[in-house]
């Protein structure tokens, strides 16, 4: 059955994936399981990520937060031995499967990585490259300026557009990577611990930026920092390690997915409660 | 103050230190042995090259150098002759440069292409592992074996007279290309493997195809490494003698080859021939040839070493960026004319960095249209 005619949120009121009030789901996973070789990384995850919200994925190390995130733009395909079962939808279209072109998908589902990874090119070309290779026919200069402005970086770099992106500070590099992602006009931005390599001031700037971007984009952020999840996100998904299977591996499962204020004040799942109060993880 | 447990330790600090110093000394001796051999070799070759009369005393450095320069330029500009006073390496030098050019034209595209395929495209599995192992083994096959292969395949074409290359320069170039191909492939693969995965992921996450990632990010990053390995492979090719003897590099040729279909000889082959001649004077000529060959090899290696330094890497990537820009700005001529570009074009004499990539497309676009 195809995913495109389903009002997924209303028809599938799974307890793990309650609909966010007043928002439709843009990314949907249903009964998603992932293996790397013989190691199961995720088991039976069902989640519906609401549009124009910031959704945080939290949980202990190795519980599959990044794996889940990378499923949505097929970056896991690059890992040898990766295998998944279940359904993944983006805007009602399937994400996985041989008929889906990951190149097209990745333009619409952008990604910001843990470590700032600007290209060893000029600031200008860092932003312009993605648009150019996607066949952008508009005014590149205008696009570069607009993207840098939206990433709150323009004022700091407008005089050094032809300097290398690697000459910027760590926080500026990360915002440059965000600008680069914005330049290809994605609908969703996946952020994999975007602030873990940044100092508190740079972190605050990125968090403010996310708040500004929320109006136009759907943001999914993986974070180890529970204060950050609390500060920035509207919805929070808490992943946990399942109990050990026969071979000792513990796949990740979705323990709870709720509005952030609910999850952090009145968690329903005892494992979530233990995690957010610091007793495990 | 000592604790009771100290009695259980016997530190023997003097012995431990002496052992360390001794080991470092052995390693130093091992290092120096290579340097010493090189110095002795160069000295012996120099003495041989300067053996012809007149013989100025060894301490007259200026005179010796002048004599050496005159001698080298004489043997570099004259061809083979039965008279050692007139004999030289012109045919061999030009033959070797031809070989170098043809080997570069054949081995670099094929080798880099194979390395790219194996590293970037080939599906991991048993087949790829088998190919990989074979290439590593091929790099260790003795060069004379390649000579025999070249004789059968290129010179004689398995007996098909129409395809046989005989003693043409082509036969030597193809044989040497086969010889260095594994080195180029392995160097390319190693350079590609050194490209950080974060760079590929960043590019792929923007919706780039694999070819776009390779063209704009992977190859430019790997280029200095590829060039280094390739130059070292070429300097191996230019020093090879044995396979060329098999595929028809001539003993003595009076006219340097003027094209890849001519008969040819190569510098190391001529050196070998002169060294085997009975007259003592030819030894000097052979030694002079060795100096020329070493000069070529050392300057090629110097380029390779330069490309490994940060300055060299920047220079290489800048050159490549320049090449890429020529193609790109031609297509985009006039598109990015307005707004930002005019605001960015060369901010001022002090601020313009070495790579003013933003300004350039506009400038060139304007110039072309």
Automatic annotation (TrEMBL), chain A:
<keyword id="KW-0547">Nucleotide-binding</keyword>
<protein>
    <submittedName>
        <fullName>Phosphate ABC transporter ATP-binding protein</fullName>
        <ecNumber>3.6.3.27</ecNumber>
    </submittedName>
</protein>
<keyword id="KW-0067">ATP-binding</keyword>
<dbReference type="GO" id="GO:0035435">
    <property type="term" value="P:phosphate ion transmembrane transport"/>
</dbReference>
<dbReference type="GO" id="GO:0005524">
    <property type="term" value="F:ATP binding"/>
</dbReference>
<dbReference type="InterPro" id="IPR017871">
    <property type="entry name" value="ABC_transporter-like_CS"/>
</dbReference>
<dbReference type="GO" id="GO:0016887">
    <property type="term" value="F:ATP hydrolysis activity"/>
</dbReference>
<dbReference type="InterPro" id="IPR003439">
    <property type="entry name" value="ABC_transporter-like_ATP-bd"/>
</dbReference>
<dbReference type="InterPro" id="IPR003593">
    <property type="entry name" value="AAA+_ATPase"/>
</dbReference>
<dbReference type="InterPro" id="IPR005670">
    <property type="entry name" value="PstB-like"/>
</dbReference>
<dbReference type="InterPro" id="IPR027417">
    <property type="entry name" value="P-loop_NTPase"/>
</dbReference>
<dbReference type="GO" id="GO:0005315">
    <property type="term" value="F:phosphate transmembrane transporter activity"/>
</dbReference>
<dbReference type="Pfam" id="PF00005">
    <property type="entry name" value="ABC_tran"/>
</dbReference>
<feature type="region of interest" description="Disordered">
    <location>
        <begin position="1"/>
        <end position="22"/>
    </location>
</feature>
<dbReference type="GO" id="GO:0016020">
    <property type="term" value="C:membrane"/>
</dbReference>
<feature type="compositionally biased region" description="Polar residues">
    <location>
        <begin position="1"/>
        <end position="12"/>
    </location>
</feature>
<feature type="domain" description="ABC transporter">
    <location>
        <begin position="27"/>
        <end position="266"/>
    </location>
</feature>
<keyword id="KW-0378">Hydrolase</keyword>
<keyword id="KW-0592">Phosphate transport</keyword>
<keyword id="KW-0813">Transport</keyword>
Automatic annotation (TrEMBL), chain B:
<dbReference type="InterPro" id="IPR005672">
    <property type="entry name" value="Phosphate_PstA"/>
</dbReference>
<keyword id="KW-0813">Transport</keyword>
<dbReference type="Pfam" id="PF00528">
    <property type="entry name" value="BPD_transp_1"/>
</dbReference>
<feature type="transmembrane region" description="Helical">
    <location>
        <begin position="285"/>
        <end position="307"/>
    </location>
</feature>
<feature type="transmembrane region" description="Helical">
    <location>
        <begin position="218"/>
        <end position="238"/>
    </location>
</feature>
<feature type="transmembrane region" description="Helical">
    <location>
        <begin position="93"/>
        <end position="118"/>
    </location>
</feature>
<keyword id="KW-0812">Transmembrane</keyword>
<comment type="similarity">
    <text>Belongs to the binding-protein-dependent transport system permease family. CysTW subfamily.</text>
</comment>
<feature type="transmembrane region" description="Helical">
    <location>
        <begin position="169"/>
        <end position="188"/>
    </location>
</feature>
<dbReference type="GO" id="GO:0005886">
    <property type="term" value="C:plasma membrane"/>
</dbReference>
<keyword id="KW-1133">Transmembrane helix</keyword>
<feature type="region of interest" description="Disordered">
    <location>
        <begin position="344"/>
        <end position="369"/>
    </location>
</feature>
<feature type="domain" description="ABC transmembrane type-1">
    <location>
        <begin position="93"/>
        <end position="303"/>
    </location>
</feature>
<protein>
    <recommendedName>
        <fullName>Phosphate transport system permease protein PstA</fullName>
    </recommendedName>
</protein>
<dbReference type="GO" id="GO:0035435">
    <property type="term" value="P:phosphate ion transmembrane transport"/>
</dbReference>
<feature type="transmembrane region" description="Helical">
    <location>
        <begin position="21"/>
        <end position="47"/>
    </location>
</feature>
<dbReference type="InterPro" id="IPR000515">
    <property type="entry name" value="MetI-like"/>
</dbReference>
<dbReference type="InterPro" id="IPR035906">
    <property type="entry name" value="MetI-like_sf"/>
</dbReference>
<feature type="transmembrane region" description="Helical">
    <location>
        <begin position="138"/>
        <end position="157"/>
    </location>
</feature>
<dbReference type="GO" id="GO:0005315">
    <property type="term" value="F:phosphate transmembrane transporter activity"/>
</dbReference>
<keyword id="KW-0472">Membrane</keyword>
<keyword id="KW-1003">Cell membrane</keyword>
């Amino acid at each position: 059955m195809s995913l495109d005619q389903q009002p997924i949120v209303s028809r599938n009121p799974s307890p793990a994936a309650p609909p966010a009030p007043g928002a439709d789901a843009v990314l949907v996973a249903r009964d998603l399981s992932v293996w790397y070789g013989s190691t199961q990384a995720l088991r039976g995850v069902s989640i519906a990520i609401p549009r124009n919200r910031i959704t945080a994925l939290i949980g202990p190390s190795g519980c599959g937060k990044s794996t889940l995130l990378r499923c949505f733009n097929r970056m896991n395909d690059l890992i040898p031995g990766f295998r998944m079962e279940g359904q993944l939808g983006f805007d009602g279209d399937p994400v996985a499967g041989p008929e889906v072109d990951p190149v097209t998908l990745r333009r619409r589902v952008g990604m910001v990585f843990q470590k700032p990874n600007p290209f060893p090119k000029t600031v200008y070309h860092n932003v312009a490259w993605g648009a150019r290779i996607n066949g952008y026919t508009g005014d590149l200069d205008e696009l570069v300026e607009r993207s840098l402005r939206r990433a709150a970086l323009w004022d700091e770099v407008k005089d050094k557009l032809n300097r290398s992106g690697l000459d910027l500070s760590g926080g500026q590099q990360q915002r440059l990577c965000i600008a680069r992602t914005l330049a290809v006009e994605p609908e969703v931005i996946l952020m994999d611990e975007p602030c873990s390599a940044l100092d508190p001031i740079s972190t605050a700037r990125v968090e403010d930026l996310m708040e500004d971007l929320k109006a136009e984009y759907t943001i999914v952020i993986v974070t180890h920092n529970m204060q950050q999840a609390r500060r920035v996100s509207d919805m929070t998904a808490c992943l946990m390690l399942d109990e050990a299977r026969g071979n000792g591996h513990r796949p990740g499962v979705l323990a709870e997915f709720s509005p952030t204020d609910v999850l952090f004040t009145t968690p329903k799942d005892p494992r979530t409660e233990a995690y957010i109060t610091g007793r495990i993880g | 103050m000592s604790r009771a447990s100290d009695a259980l330790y016997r530190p023997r600090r003097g012995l431990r230190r002496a052992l360390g110093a001794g080991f470092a000394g052995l390693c130093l001796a091992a290092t120096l042995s290579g340097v010493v051999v090189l110095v002795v070799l160069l000295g012996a070759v120099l003495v041989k090259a300067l053996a012809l009369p007149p013989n100025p005393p060894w301490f007259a450095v200026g005179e010796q150098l002048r004599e050496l320069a005159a001698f080298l330029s004489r043997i570099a500009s004259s061809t083979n002759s039965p008279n050692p006073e007139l004999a030289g390496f012109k045919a061999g030098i030009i033959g070797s440069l031809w070989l170098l050019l043809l080997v570069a034209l054949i081995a670099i595209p094929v080798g880099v292409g194979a390395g790219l395929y194996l590293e970037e495209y080939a599906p991991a599995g048993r087949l790829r592992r088998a190919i990989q192992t074979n290439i590593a083994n091929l790099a260790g096959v003795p060069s004379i074996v390649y000579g025999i292969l070249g004789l059968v395949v290129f010179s004689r074409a398995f007996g098909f007279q129409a395809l046989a290359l005989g003693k043409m320069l082509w036969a030597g170039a193809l044989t040497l290309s086969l010889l260095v191909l594994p080195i180029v492939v392995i160097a390319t693969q190693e350079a590609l493997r050194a490209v950080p995965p974060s760079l590929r992921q960043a590019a792929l996450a923007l919706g780039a195809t694999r070819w776009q990632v390779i063209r704009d990010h992977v190859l430019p990053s790997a280029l200095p490494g590829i060039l280094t390995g390739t130059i070292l492979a070429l300097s191996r090719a230019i020093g090879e003698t044995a396979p060329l003897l098999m595929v028809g590099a001539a003993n003595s040729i009076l006219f340097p080859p003027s094209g890849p279909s001519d008969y040819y000889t190569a510098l190391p082959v001529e050196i070998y021939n002169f060294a085997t001649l009975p007259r003592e004077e030819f030894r000097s000529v052979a030694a002079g040839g060795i100096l020329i060959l070493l000069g070529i090899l050392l300057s090629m290696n110097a380029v390779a070493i330069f490309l490994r330094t940060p300055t060299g890497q920047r220079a290489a990537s800048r050159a490549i960026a320049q090449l890429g820009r020529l193609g790109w700005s031609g297509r985009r001529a006039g598109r990015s004319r307005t707004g930002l570009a005019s605001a960015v074009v060369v901010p001022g004499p002090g601020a313009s960095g070495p790579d003013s990539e933003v300004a350039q497309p506009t400038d060139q676009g304007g110039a072309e249209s």
